[in-house]
Specification:
By secondary structure, the protein is α+β, with helices and mostly antiparallel strands. The chain is built from two helices and 15 strands. The protein is flat, with a radius of gyration of 26 Å. 28% of the residues are buried. Its EC number is 3.4.21.89.
Length: 278
């Protein structure tokens, strides 16, 4: 008689729960790693920002979604989650350059804003009859072709005199456009509705640690020309309030999409703007 015991045969049904448990554990660990990667990415590399107003026309439009690079200027409470950074100053900090488009925290209400840097510490900044002056000298300013964009929910063209029609009959908004060139050679385009009260200001010397910021839509921007007020002007903005430098447009939509019509998600996208560097 053979007394050797026959080893038990493990059925596939018995092995299945163990495999399922291992698979669940692997998926949970994957989710944990994914969350860590996303947190690190958003904390130290890029954050996202959506354009809420027309203050940065023509470069940026309502419905643009941006990636903002955090590392170029270092890190502060404004750029780190939950205000975990230093009380003052920046870690590995550097000052933005003239012409940079920056996302920053409003000095009073800490809301996120986006504007262009036109004045650095030590600069004397003044608007004279709609022309930006730095250190007493007018910057280069050249009239170019109008900025023309279709009228959509995100581009309402609220100023009636700028409404027009494209050759195919499409309603458009046609804004007077200028090319400005800052000291150092950085150039960009702005739109200007004509002379307004804010087109002439007192000369302001930008103090150390602060920036003079303006919107490219010169007559529809609450910026450093106006005293800081919650939901309004921003005054001179501390460098430590800067979140990061606007980098590129990740997505753009004209506002005509509908959640119940998936086709409209594609037709509303402004494909020609996606991927544009700033």
């Amino acid at each position: 008689m053979n007394d050797t015991a026959t080893p038990p045969i493990r059925s596939k049904d018995a092995a299945a729960p163990a495999a399922a448990k291992k698979e669940e554990g692997s998926f949970l660990w994957f989710l944990i790693k994914l969350v860590i990667v996303v947190l690190v990415f958003r904390t130290f590399v890029f954050s996202t920002f959506s354009i809420p107003s027309e203050s940065m026309l023509p470069r940026l439009m309502v419905g643009d979604y941006l990636f903002t690079a955090k590392w170029p200027y270092g890190y502060s409470r404004a750029s780190l989650p939950f205000d975990i950074g230093p009380d003052t100053g920046r870690i590995l900090g550097s000052t933005p350059e003239r012409g940079d488009i920056v996302v920053f925290k409003h000095p009073l209400d800490r809301a996120d804003y986006i504007k262009r840097v036109v004045g650095l510490p030590g600069d004397t900044v003044q608007m004279v009859a709609g022309v930006l002056h730095i250190d007493g000298q007018p910057i280069g300013r050249q009239r170019i072709g109008d900025f023309v964009a279709p009228i959509t929910p995100y581009n309402a063209c609220r100023v009636e005199r700028f409404r027009a029609k494209a050759p195919d009959g499409t309603p458009v908004c046609s804004y007077p456009q200028f090319r400005e060139t800052l000291p150092g050679g950085r150039s960009y385009t702005v739109v200007d509705f004509g002379l307004m009260p804010q087109d002439t200001t007192q000369a302001v010397i930008v103090p150390e640690g602060s920036l003079f910021l303006m919107g490219d839509n010169r007559d529809n921007s609450q910026d450093s020309r106006f005293p800081a007020a919650p939901g309004g002007g921003i005054g001179l903005v501390p460098v430590e309030n800067v979140v990061g430098r606007a980098s590129f447009i990740a997505f753009s939509t004209d506002g005509t999409s509908s959640w119940i019509n998936p086709v409209s998600w594609f037709t509303a996208a402004r494909w020609h703007r996606i991927g544009n560097e700033l």
